[in-house]
Write a structure and sequence with these properties.
The protein has 399 residues and is of the alpha/beta class. The chain is built from 15 helices and twelve strands. A seven-stranded mixed β-sheet has the order 2-8-7-6-5-3-4, sandwiched between helices. Strand 5, helix 8 and strand 6 form a beta-alpha-beta unit. Helix 5 crosses helix 10. The longest helix has 18 residues.
């Protein structure tokens, strides 16, 4: 008797490498002790939320018994939250944004699903640069879409010519993530403007708009202070999707947003569709506690310097081990090149040395591997140095 669809059964058989390594880590920690296992597998921030979050939660608790304190609201979110998010988005994008252009969502993932439900028809293609966040493929597939990836250049910058060549009449959207998971790359204004020009050309030729989705949960993780260009100024048919999982260390609260470019022609029709999809997908509205929480905290963030120090120590560990990598400008990941063509061989060698990493194939780029440094201390990073060296030596025939 069939209990699942063939597609879901296939996905279960090829379940997320990130989760697999996370579960392997549980067993290693039981065997060797947590302090002797170096877990770089899951991007789950360990830095406590800013103090203002505690203050806001205490304030919410004092009003918990008020009538309708946590009741239903408009599907788009609390009006005051939408207005505050619009003001924040406007400052970041350098354009004026009204609250009517913002939808509060159940995290960035919920936002992407809502957007895809509103704009994708069966067979539509969503283009993205590789490597990419693996869930994008699942999200597009949920609504009959097809994720189509295009490899980046060697330094993980956008290959605009390749993306231009990959667009077809079926292309409905392009999704980019900057700062990027898993590479840490931040795309320049020159790259974004060139991509925008390509999208305008193909939208005109195809007779329908190609949307540009900017997935920005890592926006504040900009270690070197490089420019993060305005997406709204570059291309009219842009939506920005973000969350507070990283900057407030509230990954489990599932609170995010979609911002629609005010310059989009007939953008009110897209907003109406997004609001309806937020309801019909069963989200109904983003959690009210999280909405009221971010209303008081959205301009706060955890200490960026903690992640910056971890990045710098991680770079030294990798360099000393003889591994090739591009220094991440943002986010909290490294994406080094594997010393073996099949990176799973090196992943297994790392596991033997009690280091947990994720194969690059899980992000659409075999031959590389990802390390998340958001939930491992500086001391543990330094302590893992010998383990990396031994793993490299073992696959190169030194052990």
């Amino acid at each position: 008797m069939e209990l699942l669809t063939p597609a879901i059964k296939a996905h279960l058989g090829n379940s997320s490498w990130i989760r697999r390594m996370f579960e392997a880590g549980i067993e290693l920690k039981k065997k060797y002790g947590a302090e002797n296992v170096f877990d770089y597998s899951l991007g789950n921030p360990d830095i406590p939320a800013p103090e203002v979050v505690k203050t806001a939660m205490t304030d919410l608790a004092e009003h918990a018994l008020d009538p309708f304190a946590f009741g239903y609201m408009p599907n788009a979110g609390l009006p005051e939250v939408r207005a505050a998010l619009a003001a924040k988005l406007g400052r970041e994008q350098g354009v004026e944004v009204g609250g009517e252009k913002v939808l509060v969502t159940c995290g960035a993932a919920g936002g992407i699903n809502v957007f895809f439900r509103a704009v994708l028809s069966a067979g539509d293609e969503v283009l993205c640069p590789a490597p990419y966040f693996v869930e994008y493929g699942f999200y597009a597939e949920n609504y009959g879409g097809i994720l189509k990836s295009v490899p980046c250049k060697e330094d993980f910058t956008l290959d605009i010519a390749a993306m231009d060549a990959a667009i077809t009449p079926k292309t409905r959207a392009v999704i980019i993530n900057s700062p990027n998971n898993p590479t840490g790359q931040i795309y320049s204004a020159e790259e974004i403007n060139a991509l925008a020009e390509v999208l305008r050309k193909h939208s005109a030729a195809n007779g329908r708009v190609i949307y540009l989705i900017s997935d920005e949960p890592y926006r504040f993780l900009n270690f070197d202070g490089v420019e993060i260009p305005s997406m709204f100024k570059a291309y009219d048919a842009t939506v920005v999707i973000g969350s507070f999982s990283k900057n407030l260390s509230l990954a489990g609260e599932r609170i995010g947003f979609i911002g629609v470019n005010p310059a989009l022609e007939n953008g009110q029709e897209l907003m109406a569709g997004l609001i309806m999809c937020n309801r019909i997908l069963g989200f109904v509205n983003a959690p009210v506690v999280a909405q009221k929480l971010i209303l008081q905290c959205m301009d706060s963030e955890v200490d960026l310097n903690i992640y910056r120090r971890r990045r710098d120590k991680m770079a030294k560990v990798l360099k000393d081990a003889g591994l090739e990598f591009t220094m991440p400008r943002g986010a909290f990941y490294f994406f080094p090149k594997s010393p073996t063509a099949d990176e799973s061989v090196f992943i297994n060698a790392l596991v033997e040395q009690r280091v947990l990493a994720v194969p690059g194939r899980g992000f659409g780029m075999p031959g590389y591997f990802r390390l998340a440094f958001c939930s491992i201390s500086e001391e543990a990073i330094e302590k893992s140095a010998d383990s990396f060296k031994r793993a490299v030596e073992s696959v190169r025939g030194g052990i």
